[in-house]
Write a structure and sequence with these properties.
Blueprint: H1 18-36, E1 45-49, E2 54-55, E3 58-59, H2 72-80, E4 86-91, E5 101-102, E6 108-113, E7 136-140, E8 168-172, E9 179-180, E10 183-184, E11 190-193, E12 209-214, E13 239-249, E14 252-259, E15 263-265, E16 271-272, H3 275-286, E17 290-297, E18 301-302, H4 307-321, E19 341-346, H5 355-363, E20 375-378, H6 390-395, E21 400-404, H7 419-426, E22 435-441, H8 460-470, E23 476-482, H9 484-488, H10 497-507
Parallel strand pairs: 4-8, 12-13, 12-23, 13-17, 13-18, 17-19, 19-20, 20-21, 21-22, 22-23
Antiparallel strand pairs: 1-7, 2-3, 4-6, 5-6, 8-11, 9-10, 13-14, 14-15, 15-16
């Protein structure tokens, strides 16, 4: 990836001890008090906990914050609601209280099925071995959402699981009157059809996201310099990756670079003209769009020379861009604003044996901010073995891998991609649970900045066909695009390429 021209070129609860029983009782008391005193604004909702995963002896989601939930939750929900009739109300925030799940697009989905299917659990990050259904649901007549941070919930009661009966779905926007970050959001319901199977592939696709890099382009293309433009409702982007911090190592323990057309981060770590970008990041996050900052690129000057250097850089990345609550020891280019994760687009192999230490050090800080969830992502090229990032992935835990299926003829989208090879490879690494994304150029010029890269560009209908081959694969995470600016410059029926990709992920159709 070039910073100038190309991207990489029912409830069945477990036995509860006294502590857990007390926790459940307290959860009930805290839940019914506000309900008894609540005003209008109610709605009938059925909630579900995931199959088998536990936190402090209770199914994850019961009295525990959303931050404790992990990726199998998304798979579980997909299984539970396959072929069922349900209503989805979503609130664009990632900070709701208990009984919520973050899925597609960083949205929190409150799912209300009328006929939930039998749960096929993927417990504790397992690989799909069937276990007794322990999916937990709860029904109540009044649910009050006084604010995004003051959600009232009820304690679940045992439901009766039935076979799915019907496939129609209704997908509604956030109910009128729910305050989200100071804004009351309303929406118009949309209808669709969800097929039967292991996961819904119709109106709601959970966990499948569209990702776009922003900040560098090439080929004569400039992105909109206002990042918030790409985080507006309908922009089609769920995750935006800021590119790039492209210099570090060789004595420089604070990564630096330029992001967008205005924000420059100098070698001391100070940000210059980055205030507008910081404000835009806040807008994106309030709209449910994840913001991740990327290191590397194909034309950067970066390397690691020791474990000590790697760990120092990892700590500095947290201090500069994590939610340190002002405890960090390096400059913060975005001030109090913090990102949702760190991306590694490593396209050289200098010191790659040390990145595991960098990422481990970075991850060691995540527990200090349990209110937020952070991600480690990577953008490897498609060959397996991968010459630059293969060793890194073998030693470090990644949450998302957006694989560059272009610029390498043997495994690119113009032929046959090696998605199965990647599944086999990551299954033997700390990243075994990582979601794999199909990375594509968003414009005929995006692959390498010139016309010769057009062979790697997929027209929207071809993208839909390719995604259709993998959308039911539990490992499939979505589509990554290089880049936001190229997407803007590629309109099809008044849709940008990012909007096309999001429609493909949502309902399999193009504009």
């Amino acid at each position: 990836m070039s910073h100038k021209y190309d991207h990489h070129g029912h409830i069945m609860l477990p036995s509860l001890d006294a502590r857990s029983k007390m926790k459940l009782l307290l959860a009930y008391l805290f839940a019914i008090w506000p309900l008894a005193n609540a005003a209008a604004g109610s709605e009938r909702v059925l909630w579900v906990a995931n199959c088998g995963d536990t936190v402090d002896g209770l199914p994850a989601g019961m009295g525990d914050t959303f931050g404790d939930l992990n990726s199998p939750v998304v798979t579980d929900i997909n299984s539970i609601y396959a072929g069922s009739t349900y209503t989805v109300a979503y609130v664009p925030t990632t900070s709701l209280a208990t009984w919520s799940y973050t899925t597609s697009g960083g949205y929190t989905f409150l799912v209300s099925p009328h006929n939930p299917a039998t749960c096929t659990p993927y417990a504790d990050g397992g690989t799909g071995t069937l276990q007794p259904s322990v999916a937990a649901t709860a029904t109540w007549d009044t649910k009050v959402l006084p604010s995004a941070h003051g959600q009232s919930t009820n304690v679940p009661l045992p439901p009766t699981w039935t076979a799915p009966a019907g496939t129609s779905t209704t997908e509604a926007a956030a109910p009128t009157g729910i305050a989200v970050s100071g804004t009351t959001r309303t929406g118009t319901p949309r209808t669709g059809t969800a097929p039967t199977g292991t996961a819904p592939t119709g109106a709601v696709t959970m966990g499948q996201q569209s990702v776009a890099y922003w900040g560098q382009n090439g080929g004569g293309i400039l992105e909109n310099n206002d990042l918030a433009h790409y985080c507006s409702n309908g922009a089609g982007i769920d995750v935006v990756v800021l590119s790039f911090l492209f210099q570090y190592g060789s004595g420089n323990r604070i990564p630096f670079g330029n992001i967008g057309q205005s924000c420059t981060i100098v070698s001391s770590g100070e940000g210059q003209q980055c205030e507008a970008l910081a404000a835009a990041i806040e807008t994106c996050k309030s709209n449910g769009v994840k913001v991740i900052i990327s290191l590397g690129g194909s034309r950067g000057a970066y390397s690691l020379s020791s474990q000590d250097e790697a760990e120092a850089i990892g700590q500095n990345l947290w201090d500069a861009y994590g939610n340190t609550k002002n405890t960090g020891r390096v400059p913060r280019p975005f001030g109090k604003t913090f990102v949702d994760g760190w991306d590694f687009d490593i396209e050289s192999n200098s010191g790659n044996e040390y990145y595991g230490f960098l990422i481990a050090k970075l991850r060691s800080n995540f527990a200090s901010d349990s209110e937020n969830r952070y991600f480690i992502t990577g953008a490897p090229q498609c060959p397996v073995p991968e010459p630059n990032m293969g060793q890194i992935i073998s030693k470090a835990k990644f949450d998302y891998l957006w694989i560059q299926f272009y610029n390498n003829p043997s495994c690119s989208v113009d032929g046959t991609i090696n998605f199965e090879d990647w599944k086999t490879f990551v299954a033997k690494t700390p990243s075994a649970c990582a979601k794999l994304f199909i990375g594509v150029p968003a414009h005929p010029l995006a692959a390498n900045g010139v016309g010769t890269g057009a062979r790697y560009y997929l027209e929207p209908y071809k993208l839909a066909s390719l995604v259709g081959q993998y959308r039911d694969d539990p490992a499939f995470g979505g589509v990554m695009m290089w880049s936001a600016g190229f997407s803007d410059a590629n309109l099809n029926n008044q849709c940008t390429y990012a909007q096309e990709a999001k429609r493909v992920l949502t309902n399999g159709k193009i504009c």
